[in-house]
């Protein structure tokens, strides 16, 4: 019972700390970040059909950048929601940056040395 009480007290303390950080943080920066996330999502809605209709290197690299950024921000929110504690958050964020960099580099490599994202998807659909 004592353990449960201590865990509850620790959780309450973390919640209050997060609330204080949220209230003292820059709401302008958060608003700009949220707007950027929505802009990339809307961009992807138009970019995917455009990539199908007009495949090419410019579209391949645009898709590589937009998909990587979209995935990075999405996984960043998962880390924000589910990873707690200073050290685990730092490790998770470092892993996320490494994953995003490797993803973007891999997609660029695929675009340059192979058929590209648009052509690869078209080849998969033709099977």
TrEMBL record:
GO terms for molecular function: heme binding; metal ion binding; ubiquinone binding. Pathway: Carbohydrate metabolism; tricarboxylic acid cycle. GO terms for biological process: mitochondrial electron transport, succinate to ubiquinone; tricarboxylic acid cycle. Keywords: Electron transport, Heme, Iron, Membrane, Metal-binding, Mitochondrion, Mitochondrion inner membrane, Transit peptide, Transmembrane, Transmembrane helix, Transport, Tricarboxylic acid cycle. Gene3D superfamilies: Fumarate reductase/succinate dehydrogenase, transmembrane subunit. Heme b binds at residue 70. One of its GO terms (cellular component) is mitochondrial inner membrane. A ubiquinone binds at residue 82. It is a multi-pass membrane protein. It is found in: Mitochondrion inner membrane. Its main location: mitochondrion. InterPro entries: CybS, SQR/QFR_C/D. Membrane-anchoring subunit of succinate dehydrogenase (SDH) that is involved in complex II of the mitochondrial electron transport chain and is responsible for transferring electrons from succinate to ubiquinone (coenzyme Q). SDH also oxidizes malate to the non-canonical enol form of oxaloacetate, enol-oxaloacetate. Enol-oxaloacetate, which is a potent inhibitor of the succinate dehydrogenase activity, is further isomerized into keto-oxaloacetate. Component of complex II composed of four subunits: the flavoprotein (FP) SDHA, iron-sulfur protein (IP) SDHB, and a cytochrome b560 composed of SDHC and SDHD. Belongs to the CybS family. This is Succinate dehydrogenase [ubiquinone] cytochrome b small subunit. It comes from Strix occidentalis caurina (northern spotted owl).
